[in-house]
Specification:
Elements lengths: L1 H22 L13 E8 L12 H9 L1 E6 L9 H10 L29 E2 L3 H10 L9 H4 L4 E4 L1 H7 L5 E2 L1 E3 L7 H4 L4 E8 L5 H21 L4 E6 L11 E6 L7 E3 L8 E3 L3 H9 L14 E3 L6 H45 L15 H15 L1 H7 L11 H22 L8 H19 L25 H19 L7 H17 L7 H17 L7 H23 L8 H10 L3 H18 L1 H17 L6 H7 L1 H20 L5 H23 L29 H4 L75
Parallel strand pairs: 1-7, 1-8, 2-11, 4-6, 4-7
Antiparallel strand pairs: 2-9, 3-5, 8-9, 10-12
Helix pairs in contact: 1-16, 1-17, 1-18, 3-6, 10-11, 10-13, 10-21, 10-24, 11-13, 11-24, 12-13, 12-14, 14-15, 14-24, 15-16, 15-17, 15-23, 15-24, 16-17, 17-18, 17-23, 18-19, 21-24, 22-23, 23-24
Length: 799
């Protein structure tokens, strides 16, 4: 009865762990009104490297007294051109100006601004701009939402007019240029938006001159600011490709000497352009629009260094790292995919010749040195992604040749980790390298998540703040490596315990990984936690033997659904500003805008599937497994039969990786990252299990001096003691029709492995003509009636 209830109980346990992890969220401080006036000052293209005491003294003093952060200026157009940045500022959501623009460029856009009455202004193109964002773009942005939320707003300059125009085009108060004394203008409305110009180009002299001119105009704004006001200075856009991180400074009551952050980033010192509109309304005590902004109100956090130069060095360094990451990531994953494909092709002939023939005929075995070298290359390939993550411990992006420094750091770490795996005890066993590599990968990613995921931010194998998709927690590549490493580690551990305990080990290790992935305090990836829950349920169900049946797949599906429903119920009970991604999606479904989210996710999946080099890794890994490793000569089926817990771990990894990619909008990226770890280890273990396929154990001598038919099973270092007792009884039929006991004819074969005898029998019996395992022949030695061993093996012991 308990055995039948085990799948139900384990499924409920995994779901309970997931719901507990996802339901607990950090307590958010409710933003309160902090100002009577808000002045939003924009300088397109302004970066932290442009700010210093000599060139921009006013901004330097403002940053010293206020709170600072790195601003991601993502919009609905890449790169975010100045007109897109201003439009996104006024919409509080990702928006873009209509029109055809060459990819990667920001041509000048002549925005028509009419002044019919000399007080305000009118943008005649505004209605078509709103229609374009509503019907042609997937974000559902409403340009002008910020100005619609206040009674009166001021715009200074053409960029500010784009941000301040209401959806029908009206700007309440407008000045084409900043007056010499703007105090009257800035105090005429509670919200003012000021365009101070653009800082563009790569010429340091030209950028310094533009920044100096903007700083002089900022001095006039600060001198004329109304009492009890909040002034926010932001680099509202890029000016050309590639995108960069920009300046964000907030100065006012309650915003003194801190870091700016936002719930949309969850990272100290980072906020998004879409956060500025809700920040302004919250500071004024105004309610947010009924259709929520994509952004959330920013807030200051303490802990900033007292020395402003040291504080600014952090955002400036993050901008350099993010820019270098974009250049290096493409060729890293391209080279990784090419290397793993080449290594997979090189493994094919070794698999064909890995099985040692016991008879006088057959191909010569491959040199042990070649096999050992290929095994080390497989280990190195599997460790490439974790090593690339650790490479961010070294500031490789600060040099003139960032790619070279990153390559040197990564190769050094791969070499060191490979040597470590090679020298660990148990490397010679079939599953030794697999367990070591999986453990190192899990430890690397898990430790980074537990310490704030600082290595993944702007990392080559992490996520970029420039993309605006994630700023904290576990990234796509990290999710793939962590779920693969955790499940393989669980499989390796489960294989070493009794069969009845294997599901418990799977749930223990997998449940801990679900908490690590899904907790908002740690990985903060709810879709990844749901996917991993399904994978753990599958692995636990088949870890004691058997294959993935429809009933077991149903249990995994039910586990994922139960976790989703449980989290959704908890999330929907929270206030709108505190909901997670799942709660926001369900709320959008309720108000009729859920289709936009589905459309964005589908579009992201298609774009990632086509553009990402991780797709190549996923597809190439699947082809190698299906057309080589799973073939009769490939060894993986034999490995699965001998080690059912490893089979369960790899099956659960496949299920979790596919679901995680689809739910997260990353297509096959999660599967590609997982394949980079799993496929090399599957190939290595297959090589080893084939190499031991003709091994024999020395049979125990019976009391009458003859061989013991069907004696004790093997004692494989990687197999549990329970597996030896699971083989069929003496005298029963084997799959090849030979008897299994009763004397020498039985062969008493065990390739290490037949540690799970009921799952794997290759039917190879011992030779009687004195042939050796390497195919050479000779006279049969006098063994005194005992069956000789084919060769010594670290996989086969006599216990």
């Amino acid at each position: 009865m308990l055995r039948r209830l085990a799948p139900v109980l384990l499924t409920l346990l995994v779901v309970a762990l997931g719901v507990a992890a996802l339901a607990a969220r950090p307590a958010n401080r409710t933003p309160e009104r902090s100002a009577d006036y808000v002045v939003l000052v924009g300088v397109a293209g302004l970066r932290w490297e442009d700010v210093d005491p000599e060139t921009t003294p006013t901004l330097w003093r403002m940053a010293r007294d206020g709170s600072i952060g790195s601003l991601s200026v993502r919009s609905a157009h890449r790169p975010t051109c100045p007109v897109d940045g201003w439009l996104t500022l006024g919409a509080g959501s990702f928006a873009a100006w209509p029109g055809n623009r060459p990819a990667g460029t920001c041509p000048a856009v002549d925005v028509a601004v009419e002044r019919p009455d000399g007080i305000g202004a009118n943008l005649p193109d505004q209605e078509s701009v709103v229609l374009h964002n509503q019907e042609r773009l997937p974000w559902g942005a409403v340009p002008g939402s910020l100005s619609e939320s206040v009674r009166c707003s001021v715009a200074v300059g053409p960029g500010a007019a784009v941000a301040a125009a209401r959806p029908y085009g009206r700007v309440d108060r407008y000045a084409p240029k900043l007056p010499a004394d703007p105090s009257g203008l800035l105090s005429s409305c509670v919200l003012s938006i000021v365009d101070l110009g653009t800082v563009a180009g790569d010429d340091p002299v030209a950028r310094a001159a533009a920044a100096r001119a903007a700083d002089a105009r900022l001095a006039r704004v600060l001198a004329a600011r109304p009492r009890h006001s909040l002034v926010i200075v932001a680099g509202v856009s890029d000016t050309e490709a590639p995108s960069r991180l920009h300046v964000a400074v907030a100065d006012g009551p309650g915003w003194e000497r801190g870091w700016l952050t936002s719930p949309t980033t969850g990272r100290e010192g980072y906020l998004q352009l879409v956060d500025l509109a809700p920040t302004a309304l919250t500071a004024l005590g105004r309610p947010l629009p009924e259709r929520p902004f994509l952004g959330r109100p920013a807030e200051p956090l303490g802990g900033r260094p007292a020395d402003l130069a040291a504080a600014i060095a952090g955002p400036a360094d993050a901008d350099r790292e993010a820019a270098a990451q974009r250049e290096v990531a493409g060729w890293f994953f391209g080279l990784l995919a090419a290397a793993q494909v080449a290594l997979g092709v090189a493994v094919l002939p070794l698999l064909r010749r890995a099985r040692r023939h016991a008879g006088p005929y057959g191909p010569e075995p491959v040199s042990r040195r070649i096999v050992a070298a290929v095994e080390l290359l497989l280990v190195a390939a599997a460790l490439a992604v974790p090593a690339a993550l650790l490479a961010d411990l070294v500031p490789w992006w600060r040099g003139d040749h960032a790619g070279v420094w990153f390559a040197a750091a990564t190769v050094s770490l791969v070499a060191a980790a490979t040597v470590l795996v090679r020298t660990l005890p148990g490397y010679a066993s079939t599953l030794g390298p697999l367990g070591a590599v999986a453990g190192l990968a899990t430890l690397t990613v898990g430790a980074d998540v537990l310490t704030g995921a600082r290595l993944q931010l702007n990392a080559v194998v992490g996520y970029s703040a420039l993309e605006g998709g994630r700023y904290a927690g576990l990234g796509t590549v990290g999710l793939g490596v962590l779920l693969a490493g955790a499940l393989l580690t669980a499989g390796w551990l489960a294989q070493r315990v009794r069969r009845s305990w294997r599901p418990m080990v799977m749930v223990a290790v997998g449940g801990a990984a679900v908490v690590l992935v899904g907790s908002p305090y740690l990985g903060a990836d709810s879709s990844g936690a749901i996917a991993l829950t399904a994978g753990v349920s599958v692995a636990a169900a088949i870890s004691a033997g058997g294959w993935l049946t429809l009933s077991r797949l149903a249990w995994a599906t039910m586990a994922g659904l139960a976790l989703t429903i449980g989290v959704a119920v908890v999330d929907l009970r929270r206030p709108a500003a505190e909901r997670g991604s799942l709660g926001r999606f369900l709320a959008a479904v309720g108000d009729g805008t859920g289709g936009l989210t589905v459309h964005r996710s589908g579009t992201a999946n298609v774009e990632t599937l086509v553009d990402s080099p991780l797709t190549v890794l996923a597809v190439a890994g699947a082809l190698l497994v299906w057309f080589a490793l799973l073939q009769p000569w490939g060894g993986l089926m034999r490995l699965f039969g001998i080690y059912p817990a490893v089979r369960a771990a790899m099956t659960g990894t496949a299920v979790a990786a596919v679901i995680g990619g689809v739910l997260g909008g990353s297509a096959l990226d999660v599967a590609g990252a997982a394949a980079a770890l799993v496929v090399p280890m599957a190939a290595l273990a297959s090589l080893r299990v084939l190499d031991h396929s003709t091994d024999r154990t020395r049979p125990e001598t019976a009391r009458d001096g003859g061989p013991a038919g069907g004696g004790a099973g093997p004692a494989d270092p990687d197999a549990s003691p329970a597996d030896a007792g699971d083989s069929p009884g003496d005298g029963g039929p084997r799959r090849d029709g030979a008897p299994t006991g009763g004397g020498p004819a039985a062969g008493h074969r065990t390739d290490a492995a037949d540690s799970d005898g009921r799952d794997a029998r290759d039917g190879t019996g011992p030779t009687t003509g004195g042939s050796r395992a390497d195919g050479a022949t000779g006279a049969a030695p006098d063994t005194g009636g005992r069956i000789p061993t084919a060769r010594a093996s670290s996989e086969v012991t006599t216990g």
